[in-house]
Design goal:
By secondary structure, the chain is an alpha+beta fold. 39% of the residues lie in helices and 17% in strands. Helix 3 (99-108) packs across helix 5 (136-144).
């Protein structure tokens, strides 16, 4: 067998070619694992959920089994238990935890040293809710768990999840604006002119103020052709008395830029600057309750002289 130069994606499985995609690797692993489902980071990737770039180096395959079978112990696999507490679906021919259960499982991974935080859960939650058309499945999946790890962060992230946000950049922008105290926007709602003339579907809309915000991700909006199309679309909105505010990555990636964006939108929405909470607009990694508990513990240790 060794002389044939075969690849072994899992002990007991051989293939003539290297399996360069996640779904093919999981299909090979499924041949030697029974009563299991792919979960956590692996499930998130198979579902196409947005993950932070800080997890790009997380290459291990996460596998979930029933508690009675014990966790999987194989090289390159991360074993978890609790299969029958989750719903399982088929993705690319392999068993994978459902979208809502995968979201809850990702919350369980939040711990010191793991590059996943509160805002990342909101971004993933938006993607799940948008796919399913409702936030309710996330509520149901979390309520089924008795005491999942990361519950404090999950509970804080869940009220921030919305249906309608279609990219991580849109979610980050919305969080910056709403945390400052600006009114909540409608997400990806169609805008019509007189006679039901279609004007477009902006990322965010404040109908009362006739204000629109478009998140311009570099990947899709940075080319000359797309910029020209965007200019035509913005002009169409403006011709019907809508104010359009384009937002780019750099507008939400630094403290100074976020403050500038919030103040700009406050002017557009006729919102008093003195009522803005500019200290709250920064990205959040830990839940507020986790920070409170950490502070309580610090004070207790200090009182004990440790």
């Amino acid at each position: 067998m060794r002389t044939l130069h075969l690849y072994a994606p899992a002990r007991g499985v051989w293939t003539a070619e290297d399996l360069d995609s996640l779904d093919r690797r999981c299909a090979a692993i499924s041949l030697v694992l029974k009563r299991q489902a792919f979960s956590h980071v692996t499930a998130a990737r198979l579902h196409g959920l947005p993950l932070p770039r800080s997890l790009d180096d997380e290459v291990a395959i996460h596998v979930l089994r029933d508690a009675r079978d014990g966790a999987v112990r194989r090289r390159g696999l991360v074993g978890h238990r609790g299969l029958f507490e989750r719903d399982v679906t088929d993705v690319s021919g392999v068993p994978v935890t459902s979208l809502p259960d995968t979201w809850v499982d990702m919350g369980e991974l939040i711990r010191p040293g793991f590059a996943l935080g509160l805002d990342d859960l909101v971004i993933m939650g938006d993607a799940v809710a948008n796919t399913l058309g409702s936030v309710e499945p996330l509520h149901a999946a979390l309520s089924r768990r008795v005491a999942p790890r990361g519950k404090l962060t999950l509970l804080e992230a869940l009220p921030l999840v919305r249906v309608g946000s279609e990219s991580p950049g849109e979610t980050r922008t919305r969080l910056v604006l709403t945390r400052s105290g600006l009114p909540e926007p409608e997400l990806n709602k169609p805008v019509f002119g007189p006679g039901r003339l279609w004007l477009g579907r902006p990322d965010m809309r404040w109908k009362k103020h006739r204000a629109l915000l478009e998140y311009q991700g570099r990947e899709f909006h940075d080319g000359d052709e797309q910029r020209a199309k965007d200019d035509v679309r913005f002009a169409r909105f403006s011709a019907h008395d809508w104010t359009v505010v384009p937002v780019w990555d750099e507008d939400v990636n630094t403290d100074q830029a976020r403050v500038g964006l919030v103040k700009q939108m406050a002017g557009v929405l006729v919102h008093p600057l003195e009522s803005l909470d500019l200290a709250a607009i920064h990205p959040r990694f830990f839940s507020m309750r986790m920070l409170e508990l950490a502070e309580i513990r610090r004070r207790r240790l200090k009182a004990q002289g440790r």
